UniProtKB/TrEMBL annotation:
InterPro entries, A to Z: ACAS_N, AMP-bd_C, AMP-bd_C_sf, AMP-binding_CS, AMP-dep_synth/lig_dom, ANL_N_sf
Domain AMP-dependent synthetase/ligase, first and last residues per copy: 185-552
Protein name stated in the entry: 4-coumarate--CoA ligase
Enzyme class: ligase
Residue stretches making up the Acetyl-coenzyme A synthetase N-terminal domain: 126-179
Enzyme nomenclature, EC number: 6.2.1.12
Record key words, sorted: Membrane, Transmembrane, Transmembrane helix
Organism placement in taxonomy: Eukaryota, Viridiplantae, Streptophyta, Embryophyta, Tracheophyta
Family recorded in the similarity comment: Belongs to the ATP-dependent AMP-binding enzyme family.
Amino acid sequence: MAATRRASIWEVTLEDVVAAGLQLPEAGDFLAAVREAAVGDAAETWRNLLAAGVLQPRHPHAVHQLVFYSVYGGWDAAIRGPPPYWFPSPVYSKDTNLGRILEFHGRKLLGTSYSNPIDSFSLFQKFSVQHPEVYWEIVLQELSLKFQENPRRILDTSEQSKYGGKWLPGAVLNISECCLLPMKRSDDSVAIVWRDEGDDSSVNCLSLKELRDQVMMVANALDATFSKGDAIAIDMPMTVTAVIIYLAIILAGYVVVSIADSFAAKEIETRIRVSKAQGIFTQDFIIRGGKTVPLYSRVVEGSPCKAIVVPASGKGLEVKLRKNDLSWNDFLSSVERFPRPFHYFPVHQPIDAIINVLFSSGTTGDPKAIPWSQLSPIRCAADSWAHIDVQSGDILCWPTNLGWVMGPITVYSCFLSGATLALYHGSPLGRGFGKFVQDAGVTILGTVPSLVKSWKNSNCLEGLDWTKIRTLSSTGEASDVDDDLWLSSQAGYKPIIECCGGTELASSYIFGNPLQCQAFGAFSTPGMSTGFVILSEQGLPYPDNQPCVGEVGLFAQNMGSSVKLLNADHEKVYLEGMPIYNGMQLRRHGDIIERTVGGYYRVHGRADDTMNLGGIKTSSVEIERICNRADANILETAAVSVRMHNGGPEQLVIFVVPKDRSSDWEVGVLETKFQRAIRANLNPLFKVSFVRVVAEFPRTASNKLLRRVLRDQMKKELSTRPRM
């Protein structure tokens, strides 16, 4: 049943509250508290409701929907922008990382224009783009960094470069060593907490000293097994052992090759071949969601190089190894003869030395092999410090994998800021993960929208306490407003910091920020020191602050971003065909984004996910946001356009995945609902030509929706129809 919503909060009745799930007499007390908070305009009313604690995580989601959508029932987003749901407080803002910096440096940097962290944030963001040397000199002091040789300067622009100069020239360090030093914390502080799936009895802890000892032992074992400088792959779940291996490879001067544990043998083979990896760490099996999935067998099929195999359980390996492969225990036994196996001298390298090879999704052809230098961890940790507000003492959990960019980002965001890394050894889809978040006292939780949708629809978190969370974050795909409403309410209406970027950027280019009001499913700012313009169809930049939709063009001068690829021409991929803006080379990213009234941003998908309907350009994401809310039994939709075999205009096709797959669907009824929703909320000229109900959508291993595959399926269907 669709959620009840009224045109005004004053139109909400006691019957509405009861229908949403509250019982009498609580429903009456609740409605009285809502009306008492309904003072001023919609945003002020919502702010009052949150301040008074009227809405609680224990309330049914229908109650949160009823209040939020009714409060903003008369809100005109076309005139006022997206409705805000979270508001920074003057007191809270000064305790954030950027707020503290602004209070200390704001007057000096911004002069009389400085007011306070909230009102002056946007001005400081622009300052960071115009004066990156000043910004980065401050931020480098805030991270756990130890240079063996200090950089000669922050940015060297003396040599002409399409990328705007060379960052931290002359610097020498080992970024893994920086993660292991007691600079932002003590040796006995907790570095990692974790839990195995199915074991709800306790939360396991590893101190910083214990982590450092384990990493150094593995580094010694690496030297006994491989040759200096070798590329060594990791293809296993993001467990404590995987993180130790990751840090050890870099500490010892080798190069990590990141491979997601979901890949088939062919994808493993491609990444091993492109990176020239000489070895691979993996597991015998993956235990996830109560299922045991083979992993070593896939690695054997995809790679001839030496494999070191970690047992998925504590019972020892349950597979027979190839002749030259090693068990984890045999690998570690190589250091038994060492007099000091827990001591290791880190290999210090220039700042631009390659430490990690990651890969793009590879939806067409070979995936791009993107080398990370030691600048990349600094970039991602700094952005998490600035936007997600990661601080020493935080406990950060982000279910991901070292094969995807969020894996390394999570590692560096924790260890270079002094935060504790929280790892769940199992599936994040079920209640076990949610209980771990509760029991571990997670303060920062990262997600992807599809994960949030699964939690919401399965109701698996009911009764858990997530109120220790102070910040949520989301990345990977466009967020759904109602799913975000549900997620934020679970933590007592904490902000969801949206992030959008890419592996080649080592971070994101647009974010939310705790110094700004936040709106569901929207971004509030470009990243710190990140500049971009939005380009028209003619390739011309729209004026700053003008609401518009177009392809984003990033300023190429961006610390930590890639400057080369291992298997493709970097300039051809990212720079060729992009315009010059104010003397600066723009960099291609491929996203279509919208700048709204009020200065928020929305991502409309990739440039190749746009469509032309009746001569009007629109995006798949924009249509999907509307169609997802057209019927309560819709799990998700995908919008594509196709041309008929006899030519003519593009036809709009909506693919649907239902929540209840056993139900019979009247496609004609769905088509009518979609048409009505699009006409009312987007454009009355857009016509829905076809609706198709499917069990699931094709996705990449990183869970990105493959609209191209759906488009090809529809084209094939239409090609078999008789021509008129």
